[in-house]
Amino acid sequence: MKATTVHGSEETRTRTRVKILLTSLSAMVAETSTFPIDLTKTRLQLHGESQPLSSSSASARRTNAFRVASEIVREQGVLGLYKGLSPAVIRHLFYTPIRIVGYENLRNFVSNDSSLSLSSKALVGGISGAIAQVVASPADLVKVRMQADGRMVSKGLQSRYKGPFDAFTKIVAMEGFGGLWKGVFPNVQRAFLVNMGELACYDHAKRFVINNQIANDNIFAHTLASIMSGLSATALSCPADVVKTRMMNQAVGKEGNVMYRNSYDCLVKTVKVEGLTALWKGFFPTWARLGPWQFVFWVSYEKFRQIAGLSSF
């Protein structure tokens, strides 16, 4: 009996390691495929934040995703669309395995069958995403800073960082070790909302499609589920994503001055200067990225699981 228990525990650990490897691989493929859209989204969200509070100019709002992407290619070439890819991939080596494998383990721990409610799945997804984001926040910070660097170069300013490791070093030297977790609160807020929408909606939508015989457990079901979860995650997370991006992008000045004191201050200033709709800046590129990202990730991950002899997610 004891030998059987030990064998079962070892088999569970082996399956978990395989899932971690497969989620990392799938995330790397999805991140590389959709990174230019993420860069466009980040630049669009940062657009207009340097306008003074008293400014009534509408120039800060006269832009869109296509214009931002065109300017990047014109000024930096096609490779400019991949500025900050390295820390983005590093981030997903931690973030995605923790949230995906963590969600599946928590879901199965709460209920071994498929009867878990959507609200329960949303809570489990949010918790998994929040934990994963705390761990991956330093890499996310470096990614945002490097993406924003390209905008500085386009304005004739000197780039702050030569690469991801240089960024890590300079951030720690100038802002302390805790500086790597700057913006972690809005970051975790966004991660909770994204995963609450993404994981719960994908899981629930896929089971709905299969149980109602709309499609079998195949690429069609995975595609439908990923589209629905992408829209849900984007609508919930976009305001927190804007605040997170701006909080993480700001560096401490020589006199210790910062543009935003905290996430609430950033939220208020953004709405005051640019209007309420500014909280959904980058909605289209965010959804345009989440949709393809989830399609590539989930289709790859489900296929890899099948090849590895694992059950469907």
Largest sheet descriptor: none
What is the overall pLDDT average?
A: 82
* Proportion in β-strands: under 5%
Order of helices and strands: HHHHHHHHH
- Number of DSSP strand runs: 0
What structural class do the secondary elements suggest? mainly alpha
Estimate the helix proportion, in percent. Answer: over 70%
Organism: Corchorus olitorius
Family: Belongs to the mitochondrial carrier (TC 2.A.29) family.
Keywords: Membrane, Mitochondrion, Mitochondrion inner membrane, Repeat, Transmembrane, Transmembrane helix, Transport
Protein name: Mitochondrial carrier protein
What does this structure look like?
This protein is globular. The two termini are 29 Å apart. The protein has a domain at 185-281. The longest helix has 45 residues, at 2-46. With 313 residues, the protein is an all-alpha fold. It has helices spanning 2-46, 65-76, 85-110, 118-154, 164-175, 184-211, 219-249, 263-274, 283-307. α1 (2-46) crosses α4 and α6 (184-211) packs antiparallel against α7.
Tell me the layout of helices and strands.
Blueprint: H1 2-46, H2 65-76, H3 85-110, H4 118-154, H5 164-175, H6 184-211, H7 219-249, H8 263-274, H9 283-307
Helix pairs in contact: 1-2, 1-3, 1-4, 1-9, 3-4, 4-6, 6-7, 7-8, 7-9
What is the structure about, briefly put?
One of its GO terms (molecular function) is transmembrane transporter activity. The protein has 313 residues and is an all-alpha fold. The protein has helices at 2-46, 65-76, 85-110, 118-154, 164-175, 184-211, 219-249, 263-274, 283-307.
